[in-house]
Amino acid sequence: xxxxxxxxxxxxxxxxxxxxxxxxxxxxxxxxxxxxxxxxxxxxxxxxxxxxxxxxxxxxxxxxxxxxxxxxxxxxxxxxxxxxxxxxxxxxxxxxxxxxxxxxx
Length: 105
What we know:
The protein is an alpha+beta fold. The protein has one domain (2-104). Helix content is 37%, strand content 39%. The protein contains 3 helices and 3 strands. It has helices spanning 2-6, 10-15, 77-104; strands spanning 24-37, 43-56, 62-74. It has a 3-stranded antiparallel β-sheet with strand order 1-2-3. The longest helix has 28 residues, at 77-104. It starts with a helix and ends with a helix.
């Protein structure tokens, strides 16, 4: 059901009666892949992205859709991913007011 709503299924949003609980739904999917950098003492690079959809709960209409991506480095996958995700969260924080304006419009 998540996939259907993420891909714009207004009927699934309606059947869940989400408008009783919220004005909008913000859905996200995370993607991460890693590359090794043997020239840099085996440092790993995480290439992370989050795909976001903002859906109006009353209608099921997707009012915003965007991707945010970043890279992070570390000596382990969790460390590299964490660094990339921190950067992504910063970017999302910067976009927060734009998202709120679209919801209120």
